[in-house]
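Researcher: Next sequence.
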Amino acid sequence: MIEHIFADNLLAGRVAFVTGGGTGITGGVARALAEAGARVALVSRKREHLEPAAERIRAGGGAALAVAADVRVYGEVERAIATTVEQFGRLDIIVNGAAGNFLCRAEELSPNGFGTVVDIDLKGTFNVCRAAFDELKKRGGAILNISATLQYLGTQMQAHAAAAKAGVDSLTRTLAVEWGGYQIRTNAIAPGPIEDTEGMKRLLVPALKDKLRHRIPVRRFGRIRDIEHAALFLCSDAASFINGAILVVDGGQWLATSRLLSPE
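Model: Next structure:
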């Protein structure tokens, strides 16, 4: 796979605020933004989960700040935004990647379990966008929400996460319309099965994994690097006329899943 796709220093001078940026998909996105020249604030509930990721970015020559904040609590998000601006002087890019999920049948799902996932994924996304608005409107910027493909079909044991991500998609489109006049672009990425994430390693047994891979038209799982590339594009000036898009990065998996007949 070609690794060096984008111009050097693609995002030089920009400052990015990445929630859930310590590990997984958004950890990779944060690292990629830093490699492209952006200064990056990594945000999660516990600073100790972020500091190793921030240190890896610094070791690679980038600039990174670890900031503790619970995206469900608006005041904490406001303080994290203020800390980022105080440290780096501006704010240009928001990546909303904080998320919660677990497998549970709807009839066994507690109201608290449902509400917790919606609060993290949907309310947290709104809180960050709203808290960042005053800074973003000063010079324009890019908001990138990490969505999913769960909500496109009836995904079993995912009533909570699918509902939350459907809300994220709707919020993405609404903010694109309302805030586009401030030169704030709002887009989303909907990742499909990403092989090198903890969720895939934990949830899929080998037999199920092989079956799922066969149902992906390109016959492979995604990698975090695939999401990084999509994120760099949407956050860069190359996507300056893209606003309100939800970019599905899944090798065509959800389209194939929706067919009546299997590939065989």
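Model: The two ends are 28 Å apart (CA to CA). DSSP finds nine helices and seven strands in the chain.
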